[in-house]
Amino acid sequence: MDKVKTLDIAKFLPHRTPFLMVDKVLSIDDEHVATSFTIKSDCIFVSDTIFNEIGMVENAAQTCSSIVGKSYFEEDDLEGEGTKLIGFISAIKKVQVYSCPTVGETIVSKAILKSRFDTEQYSMCTLECTIHEADKELLSCEMNLFIQEMK
Questions:
Q1: Between 10 and 135, whose confidence is greater?
Q2: How far is CA 8 from the centre of its chain?
Q3: Rounded to 5 degrees, what are φ and ψ at 122?
């Protein structure tokens, strides 16, 4: 667990500012992940102090991708130097948005791996994700992701 606290998620996701929608990995294993993201006023998905639905879906996708993405890295690679990945949402099966957070709030996203199919070239997976701010559920979704190592 101490390794998670020192993990810089930006070194493991292909996203960069201004498109990085995850600040911290709170916990992670082969089937679950929890992340946090503090909404800032300069975020590209903020309009009139509201973090919009598209931003929350992107946060969910980045959170989900870290479960499968972690399997491409060596356990002791805390700098993300061993592998470069690309990935994208291949399908959104369902999404429910209940509320949108505002600037200054920190959201916590939790994802569960439902299924995974690996080939030598790529991984396809189905995940469920929920996003909360304090005790309030903001979004729930199920999506498919495609993840590939860049050679």
A1: 135
A2: 13
A3: -160, 170
Distance, in Å, from the CA atom of 127 to the CA atom of 93, rounded to the nearest integer, reads 10
What's at 104, amino acid-wise?
G
Mean pLDDT of 60-80: 72
Residues 6+ apart with CB under 8 A from 42: 18
Which pTM value belongs to this model? Answer: 0.86
Structural domains in the chain, sorted by start = 2-149 (3.10.129.10)
Q: Sign of torsion, CA 98 19 148 72?
A: negative
What are the contacts of 112-117 at 24+ separation with CB within 8 A?
Answer: 112/31, 112/32, 113/30, 113/31, 113/32, 113/67, 113/68, 114/142, 116/68
Task: Give me the pLDDT at residue 68, please.
Answer: 80
What's the confidence (pLDDT) of residue 1?
Answer: 43
Nearest to 130 by CA among 8, 52, 33, 65: 33
DSSP 31: S
